[in-house]
Amino acid sequence: MTSVIFYEKPGCANNTRQKRLLQDAGHSLSVRNLLTEPWTAERLLAFFGERPVAEWFNKAAPRVKSGEVNPHGLDAGAAIALMLAEPLLIRRPLMEADGARSVGFDPADVDAWIGLGPKTPDVDLETCRREAAKAKALALD
């Protein structure tokens, strides 16, 4: 199938599930650590395409969750500067295949791009399950 460069946060449960889906579809992965990769502004921007700046950010990053970093109030230059200084702010995964790049993991988008096969799940594979569980518990209080 396709060779995919997959930039992850090591130990992230969602990245593990995403990699499994790609491998089950027959893709080969070259897995890299998103947090230690030597990013440049130009290289990082190539993954975001035409997406709004707010969609470049990891919503579960501590500085985003606390409100210290407001992705909606940033221009591209400020956003990239923050991400280069603190890669945990970068939405993940970043993927590269056949000369194209993407950010995030929407199963339908990935299936349309490189294929996931007949078992393409219709689930959220980006929201941290620990964060979702905390939010649900707070809502029940």
Automatic annotation (TrEMBL):
Pfam families the UniProt entry points to: ArsC
InterPro entries for the chain: Arsenate_reductase-like (IPR006660), Nase-assoc (IPR006503), Thioredoxin-like_sf (IPR036249)
Superkingdom: Bacteria
NCBIfam families linked to this entry: nitro_assoc
Family: Belongs to the ArsC family.
Protein name: Nitrogenase-associated protein
Organism (species): Methylocella silvestris
Source organism phylogeny: Bacteria, Pseudomonadati, Pseudomonadota, Alphaproteobacteria, Hyphomicrobiales
